Automatic annotation (TrEMBL):
Residues 6-227 form the ABC transporter domain. SMART domains: AAA (SM00382). Residues 280-345 form the Mop domain. Keywords: ATP-binding, Molybdenum, Nucleotide-binding, Transport. This is Molybdate transport system ATP-binding protein. InterPro entries: AAA+_ATPase, ABC_SmlMolc_Importer, ABC_transporter-like_ATP-bd, ABC_transporter-like_CS, Mo/tungstate-bd_C_term_dom, Mop_domain, P-loop_NTPase, Transp-assoc_OB_typ1.
Length: 346
């Protein structure tokens, strides 16, 4: 099975890319505003025709095909459900369009609604659904089209903070094993949903590779900023998160999660204190590590520190860096207060 390849040149938009994405994997498409992410996505979907375009999916040449014949489904930030149809018929619309009978299409639709945890919402019209419920129905509709590739355009961006983790969890389950392109500005989405990452800047690919490499050793300023949020994966435990190495990071926000639930801890680099010797004091996590990079970050200095929990970033004032004599190879202790660490469901 070959994957998805996109070669395009759009003169007016100044976008020129040549990308190969693996079959059965999720590739995050990252980059600043105007970098060309939507241009790539819509060129694959067939709703935008760049000056030159060559799109291949699973060995098929999609370049000249109309959008509805490409067997790709687009899931946008806005669920874009048909307002006059209930949830079941919104989902059944895709199999109906593929020629299935009404009864069969509705049976399939009910199955997809169950897959996304939307059983019970069949009779509701879009106006009667919350943002998260509507996005579940939109995911079911995208899957019901039995696409060969799924294109996700910031699927969680319009959701509130409570709904986003739930929908991310649904996506994690349904995206596994599928060929997916995910446009996102969110490092948590990239880390939890994608295997590979491609960074676009000014219409060009500037970085690509496994997401874990991008986050732990970014090679471009954009990726470095993106990776600037500390993110750890693990399991919820009482009062925090247990990382894969067994260390517990204390944090808040995970009180509702059952122990053992897959979770992430996120915290900003300016909340990480760096010490030469282990500090004591208030509830916090202390991690020993080694400085692997010292780089400017605005008016601060950013340290990358390899700990047993992975590479973490800390922003310090230049004065603190000088005082602690921090340089590559220095052994340090990182301290993070529980109140600065946000635990959420993965
Ligand atoms: N409909 C359009 N007509 C003309 N130029 C456009 C159009 N849409 C986007 N562009 C331009 O093409 C370039 C790439 O935009 P694109 O929307 O692909 O970027 P993006 O990475 O998706 O940005 P964002 O994160 O803001 O959605 C930008 O310079 C943008 O201004």
């Amino acid at each position: 099975m070959s994957g998805l390849s996109v070669r395009l040149r759009d003169v007016a938009r100044r976008v020129a890319v040549d990308l190969s994405m693996q079959a059965g994997r999720t590739t995050a498409l990252l980059g600043p505003n105007g970098a060309g992410k939507s241009t790539v996505l819509t060129a694959v979907a067939g709703t935008h025709r760049p000056d030159e375009v060559d799109v291949r999916l699973g060995g098929r040449d999609l370049s000249g095909l109309a959008a509805h014949r490409r067997r790709v489904a687009l899931l946008a930030q806005d669920p874009l459900l048909l307002p006059h149809l209930d949830a079941l018929d919104n989902v059944a619309f895709a199999p109906r369009a593929q020629g299935r009978g009404r009864r069969e299409a509705r049976r399939l639709a009910a199955g997809w609604l169950e897959t996304v945890g939307a059983t019970g919402l069949e009779d509701r019209r879009p106006a009667q659904l919350s943002g998260g419920q509507a996005q579940r129905v939109a995911i079911a509709r995208a899957l019901a089209a039995e696409p060969e590739a799924l294109l996700l355009d910031e699927p969680l961006a319009a959701l509130d903070v409570d709904a986003a983790p739930e929908i991310r969890h649904v996506l994690r389950q349904v995206l596994a094993g599928r060929t997916v392109v995910l446009v996102t500005h969110d490092v948590v989405d990239a880390a939890l949903l994608a295997d590979q990452a491609v960074v676009l800047e000014q219409g060009r690919v500037v970085e690509s590779g496994p997401v874990t490499d991008l986050l732990s050793a970014p090679r471009t300023p954009f990726a470095a900023r993106l990776a600037g949020t500390n993110l750890l994966q693990g399991r919820a435990v009482d009062g925090g998160l247990q990382a894969t190495d067994g260390t517990v990071m204390r944090g808040i926000g995970g009180e509702q999660l059952a122990p053992g639930t897959a979770a992430v801890a996120t915290f900003r680099p300016d909340t990480v204190a760096v010490h030469a010797a282990p500090p004591g004091g208030s509830p916090r996590t202390v991690l020993p590590g080694e400085v692997v990079a010292v780089e400017p970050s605005g008016s601060a200095v950013r340290l990358r520190v390899r700990s047993t929990m992975g590479v973490l970033v800390a922003d310090l004032t230049p004065a603190a860096v000088a005082e602690l004599d921090l340089r590559t190879g220095a052994r340090v202790h990182l301290a993070v207060k529980a109140a600065a660490v946000r635990i959420s469901q993965a």
